[in-house]
Amino acid sequence: MPQKFTRRPTNQNFPLFHGKRATPSVPGLKQLLEYHGVELQQETLEQLWAYHQLLRENNKDQDLTRLNAFETIVERHYADCILINAYVEKWPKRMIDVGSGAGFPGIPLKLVNPDIRLTLCEPRPNRVEFLNLVIRELGLQGIDVFGHKVTSRSLTFPVEGVISRAFELIELTLPRIQKALVPGGRAFFMKGPAVKEELATLHPEDYGFKLLEKHFYRIPKSTQDRALIVLEKVEV
Ligand SMILES: C[S@@+](CC[C@H](N)C(=O)[O-])C[C@H]1O[C@@H](n2cnc3c(N)ncnc32)[C@H](O)[C@@H]1O
What residues bind S-adenosyl-L-methionine, as annotated (predicted)? Predict the structure, then answer.
């Protein structure tokens, strides 16, 4: 069964399952994801569930996410990180996720696109430990953790793609990734509605980039407005 990611935005704002709470379980996860426009293969769903279990078990003492309710985690973490697939025809083969935190968007992105060779960049030791635990426990291949800050000098390997969510202003990230990103490489920024003001004063050409795509959408059946901004490295 192909995986589906609904692109259609909706203004409908139903209470979840007509007021009922979803059961935290694989079927509950499937039901909630489908409610938000994400249809996954069973194997991917089970991997995401395993990740969710690790996130819950380790959140208490490791400060991984401030979201608590199952429904909110599925909507604002999992659906959010998977829906971007609807806007990207082909992901670069070699990517980094800058400021991964507890693994967003990197872990869901990798589960849905196992062919991406991905490095999760995260300096906080407890988060690095958690990300390595997830990789080990889920038996993921082609993914590792760079446990340092990404700076203009710290990345020593070339990459074809960069992604980040809830990290910092785009103009602060561009100099960090300028050297590591190959010409023609792409940078994907997952943003909220405030990005419109950010874009109004952004000059990507100052850093050797050009603005390629802007997608504004809402997580289906939610109040969460999102944007995916794609820049291309043009400078050789
Ligand atoms: C607000 S959190 C966002 C985490 C995740 N991307 C998400 O959407 O939930 C930002 C993360 O960036 C990390 N961070 C801060 N400076 C960084 C840098 N220079 N390079 C890489 N990660 C950094 C922080 O430790 C933190 O975990």
Answer: 99, 104, 165
CA-nearest residue, atom 16 of ligand 1 = 149
- Flag whether 226 is in a domain: yes
Q: 121 - beta bridge partners? A: 98, 146
Name the residue range of residue 66's domain. Answer: 10-233
Please tell me if the CB atom of residue 98 comes closer than 6 angstroms to any atom of ligand 1.
yes
- Looking at the structure of the chain, the number of domains it has is 1
Banded pLDDT at 13 (limits 50, 70, 90): very low
Q: Has residue 192 been placed in a domain? A: yes
Indicate the pTM of the whole model.
Answer: 0.93
Asked whether residue 2 is assigned to any structural domain, the reply reads no
Q: The domain spanning residue 69 has which CATH number?
A: 3.40.50.150
| pLDDT tens readout for residues 158-202 | 999 999 999 999 999 999 999 999 999 999 999 999 999 999 999
C-beta 78 within 6 A of ligand 1: no
80 lines ligand 1 (CB under 6 A): no
Ligand 1 within 6 A of 124 CB? Answer: yes
5 domain-assigned: no
Predicted ipTM of the assembly: 0.99
Return the residue whose CA atom lies nearest to atom 27 of ligand 1.
Answer: 101
